[in-house]
Every structure is written in C-alpha cells, then in structure tokens.
Amino acid sequence: MTKPMDEKRVGYFCAYTPLEVLNAAGVGHARLLKAGDSETVAAGELFTQSVFCDFSKSCIGGFAQGDPFYSAVDKLYNFHTCASMKRVTELIEGFVPVKLLNLPKLRDLESSRLFFRDEIFELKRDLFELIGHEISDSYIREQIVRYNILRKLIKNISELRKRDNPPISGKDFVEPARAFYYVPPEKLIDTHDKIYRALSAVSGAGSRPLRLMISGSIAADGDRRLLDILEGEMGARVVVEDHCAGLKPFYNTVKETGDPLLALADGYLDQAPCTRMKTLQDNVNFAGQLAQEYQVDGVLHVYLKFCSCYGITKKPFLNHFQSIDIPVLDLSSDYSGNDYGQIKTRIKAFIEVINARRSKKNGSNTICRRCTG
Ligand code: SF4
Fold first, then answer.
1. Closest ligand 1 atom number to CA of residue 83
2. Segment 60-117, tens digit of pLDDT
3. Cα–Cα distance, 199 to 204 (Å, whole number)
4. Atom of ligand 1 nearest to the CA of 54
5. Is the CB–ligand 1 distance for residue 332 below 6 Å?
6. Does the C-beta of 217 come closer than 6 Å to ligand 1?
7. Distance between CA atoms of 28 and 22, rounded to whole angstroms?
8. Which of 234, 252, 280, 361 places its Cα 20 to 30 Å from the Cα of 261?
9. In Å, how far are 82, 140, 234, 274, 284 from 53, measured between CA atoms?
10. Closest C-alpha among 359, 230, 354 to residue 370
C-alpha cells in the first residue's frame, strides 16, 4: 500500500479497474495479485470447492490467513469478471467491506460503454462515501494523463525486447509492470523513465536468444515457475506476455479529452481484450498480433486449472497460431507444484522442437503435436 496510515486503503483484483478514479480519490490502492503458493490456496479451499481456480482461492486465502498486505485494505472493489471472482468477492465480504461492480462482456456495443460509464460513476460515488469528499472530474482527467505516461513508459520498456538481443529479461520486465499496480504514477514515472533510458543505452550486441511469448490465464505475483524454468534453466527469453499481469494492460492508452468517465469506460473496454470479453476471436487475434510483433519463436499457452475463461480458448488459439505458423505448447497447471517435473520435461521438448525448426531452412511442422496437450 502506498499512502500514510491515516488514509483509506483499497484493494482490487482485476486489470479492468480504473486506477485513475482510485488515485484521484487520494486513497492508497493496490491490486491484490499475490498468489502462487499452495498454503494460501489451501486456506481459500476451506471456503470453496476445488473447482475454483487456484488464483481465486488464493484471493480468499490471503484474507483468511491475515496476510498483512490484504488486512491493510479498508475496502475491496471488484468488477464482475469471471463467475469465480464474483463468488470469491462475495465471500471476502466476511473479512472486509466489499463493493462489487459490473463489467459488460459485449465490449463493442454503445450500450455497454454507457453502462460501464455508469458503473465507474458508481465507483466514484462509493469512494466519496469512503473518503468523505468529492472527486472532481478535472482531477480524474489529470490522472488519466499521468497513467497514460506510465503506460507508455512500460510499453516502451517492453518494446526494447523487440531487439534481437533484448536488454531486459521477462523475469525483470514483470517488476516495472507490477509496480504499476502497487505504486501511484506520481512516484513511479521518474523511476520508469530512468529504467527506460538505462535499458535503451544497453548495447544490442550479442546472439539472439530463443524468443517466447507466455499467453493465457493470470500470472500472479508469486507464480514465477514458468519464468524460472524458461529463462533460469533453459536459457530462453520471454519477450512478451499476453496475460493481464504482463504487457497486455499497457498496450493502449485512455482518451485524454471529453467526459473522463466515458473516456475511462472506452479506454478500459478497448484495452487488449481479456478472454472473458466477447468475442473470443478478438483475444486470439490480439495474441497472434503480439507474437508476430515481437517475432517470437514459440508460444506457451497457459491454462490455470479450472479457469472458466481460459478453459475455452485452446482450440481457436491453436488453430490461429497454426495458421500464422508459430509453434504453441499448451500447458495446464496450478499452484501445487506437483507438476513441476512434467512441465519442465514438456518445455524442454518444445524448445528442442523450436531449435530444430529454426535450424531447418524449410521446416514443415507448425505445431508440435508431441508438446500440445
Ligand atoms: S484465472 Fe480464470 S477463473 Fe481464475 S480468476 Fe482469472 S479468469 Fe477467473
């Protein structure tokens, strides 16, 4: 949390939460993104059946365990993303006051935009009750500008990974990306600007590593097994993330003119689409565009077990990547750690296939059948 002790602190889960309004309210705010260990999952499982994903269980588990980061929250704001998170939010009301808001799924409709604007207005109204003073539109507009600067900086840092020899690893990139959710922009812009300048000055010389994209379910702050295996053990580089805790939320900016609440509604609905938004094909097309933009050699399509949203993307995702000739490894996992050896073996085989493919002039395999689930 980022504010002095006497100020209100709010938490949220989803990247569709307009931080501009939270920051304009002057509250401390943080995305509750910590997850990845089996103990927290077990604490959450006391409240749910096993068919909830491990991330949603961890969200309850963090509160149930009395994690100080979670306990510091005066109020939780959550948008209705997937059914699991809606139910989890209702349960969390037993620990902390909660405000559940709605997020339209049909993002292209004019009515969705007006509806979402109303929900953002409701967020603003509820924050007024929490903090006891009005949040002016001009201050929200100011925050839109600040957050846009920060989004552009994070995107610029990411784009340095388009170099043949990227100056930053995937493991290191997630730090400035996640700081976005923990530190307000007025404190972060200078730091990120310095990071960008320092990385820009790094020489691009050196050999081209094997370049990978991770796509799929949320990668929580604490769920770093894949990055450890890929970059720490296999020597590959994750050059781009198509998930909501990597590059994806920083791909677009919010309009800086006009009604700020409508601009936020448009901006957040127009951000790189989460698979819970319709249409599914938008999500798949964006993943393909990102993979081509960053010239990846292969993609890991990651499904967090029991995730209701990403549980249905596999077939269209594999079909699309086959059509653009980029190999995909489809992985399903959870936070138990039981499958570590199996995942490592499959990744190793996948990397061998990609390396063989790269070394062939006219390789014919587009999808590694051995490695896809
Ligand atoms: S991983 Fe899937 S089921 Fe879990 S919170 Fe995210 S969208 Fe919902």
1. 8
2. 999 999 999 999 999 999 999 899 999 999 999 999 999 999 999 999 999 999 999 9
3. 10
4. 4
5. no
6. yes
7. 8
8. 280
9. 11, 34, 28, 16, 22
10. 354
